[in-house]
Write a structure and sequence with these properties.
163 residues; alpha+beta; 7-stranded antiparallel sheet
Amino acid sequence: MKWIWMIVLVLAIPLMVILIIGLLLPKKHTVQRSTSLRQSPETVWGLISGPPSWRTSVQKYEELPPHDGHRMWRETDKSGQTITFEAIESAPPWRLVTRIADPKLPFGGTWTYEIAPTVDGCTLTITEDGEVYNPVFRFVSRYIMGHAATVNMYLKAVHAKLG
């Protein structure tokens, strides 16, 4: 019986530390990343505002009926996680703001895409204003995955598609 309690303690203490640290971390975070592309703003706009079939992480894409005049869609990734998005601001080909439109997820927030012309193409800047509600996931997002992981993966896919 003593061994069982020792095993429980060995497993419980790290989980409690993760939970406590997660509770101390702020729910909101902001991440911004930029990349230079040798494409016109219109080409980049067409890519980021259209169906995400070019992203290898997206297994399924569905257009949904508009909400308050805003475009809505649902993406399912290769692990089966489904996220519903809403385009809350659209100013082609310069600015797009999307938000996660599913309040049941343990995270949420917006992505702001800004496209600025340059001499040989454009710069794409993505700003994530995220929120992580679950303290354990907040710990994982901050210390294991990194808040910028999804933005970095997205920009890598942009470069893979546009060269």
